[in-house]
Specification:
This protein has about 325 residues and is of the alpha/beta class. It folds into three domains: about 1-35; about 50-120, no CATH class; about 135-170 and about 195-315, 2-Layer Sandwich (Nucleotidyltransferase, domain 5). Helix content is about 40%, strand content about 15%. The protein has helices at about 1-10, 15-20, 25-35, 50-65, 75-85, 105-110, 125-130, 135-150, 245-260, 280-290, 300-305, 305-315; strands at about 160-170, 195-205, 210-215, 235-240, 265-270, 290-295. A six-stranded mixed sheet has the order 4-3-2-1-5-6, sandwiched between helices.
């Protein structure tokens, strides 16, 4: 194609001769000769309906709305493209009855603006969105900075984050190939409904993890429950499978045993404001062992807490 186009533009060959020589349709060579070659990412032989600057503005607006937690759907983007074309008097072939651009335009738009992709959003409550503001975040970092200054010998390996996550014992089956028209399709699993197990995890700014504590929903503990678990994992039980103040105190004792903090060798422990983290026993253990507790502001852990993203990735893998 490149050689044929060069030969035509230089006058070495005519369009008919180049078509016969290189085996390329005449219509295709005519578009190259007249500089009507399609823009990369455009479906078909037609140029994009909207100008490049307009599409960049649409992509920027889409990103801004996503950051404000009001992301646009594919249908929203198609409607917006139609409105932009109508308002600017641009000739288009969009569906005037539905007042939206077509799916072909949308696919081409996403290819031309590769910084955008279709993602599944995480539900975020209004309280969480309103609580995570610059005032709250800056106040937390001011306290964190003061803590670092008061503990002059503090190293990255001495700054820890702890969090809990729920794990289900039955895996979710992936998609399978099945006969068309069959209403119900099944796949063998260990059970239809799994039990919830809580894992308490912690790691420091240097990337070192503490062996987790697993909370099983039962009355009596059996050592066989930890078969295959990481070395030095602690197993405890709870009727509900959730953590409480007593179990968090047990985890803190496990943390102290593994990390060996002291008043002479202080550590900082970052955690959320869950009720299980607030007990006199926990405060006493931290004071006796040189641990400074620092709580994230309410409704900000999805942004500030490092383990939130790590645990979400772990759940996706499981």
């Amino acid at each position: 194609m490149s050689m044929a186009a060069t030969a035509i533009r230089s006058g070495e060959l005519s369009v008919r001769e180049a078509s016969s020589c290189y085996g390329i349709p005449k219509s295709t060579l005519e578009r190259h000769k007249n500089k009507k070659v399609q823009v990369p990412g455009c479906l078909g032989r037609f140029r994009p309906t909207l100008e490049k600057d307009m599409e960049k503005d649409l992509a920027s607006y889409c990103t801004n709305m996503q950051q404000r937690l009001f992301g646009l759907t594919l249908t929203d983007m198609r409607r917006m493209a139609f409105q932009v074309a109508e308002r600017n008097g641009i000739s288009h072939r969009f569906d005037k009855k539905k007042e939206m651009a077509g799916k072909d335009w949308l696919h081409g738009f996403l290819r031309r603006n590769s910084e955008l992709s279709l993602r599944t959003p995480e539900p975020t409550s209004i309280a969480r969105a309103a609580g995570c503001n610059s005032v709250q975040v800056n106040r937390f970092y001011d306290i964190l900075e003061d803590t670092y200054k008061s503990l002059k010998s503090l190293e990255p390996s001495h700054v820890w984050n702890v969090d809990e996550t729920g794990l289900v014992t039955v895996h979710r089956p992936s998609k399978i190939l099945a006969s068309k028209g069959q209403k119900q399709v099944g796949k063998i699993t260990s059970a239809e409904r799994g039990k919830l197990i809580t894992a308490v995890c912690a790691f420091n700014a240097a990337g070192t993890y503490v062996a987790p504590m697993l909370i099983f929903p039962r009355v009596y503990f059996n050592d066989r429950l930890l078969h295959g678990a990481p070395p030095q994992t602690v197993g405890v039980t709870s009727k509900s499978g959730w953590i409480d103040q007593g179990l968090f105190a047990k985890w803190l004792e496990h943390f102290i045993h593994m990390v060996k903090p002291s008043v002479e060798d202080p550590h900082v422990l970052l955690l959320d404001g869950h009720v299980s983290h607030k007990s006199l026993e926990v405060v006493d253990l931290c004071r006796q062992n040189g641990i400074t507790l620092l709580c994230f502001p309410p409704h900000t852990t999805h942004v500030l807490q490092p383990l939130d993203s790590v645990l979400r990735a772990t759940q996706d893998i499981l």
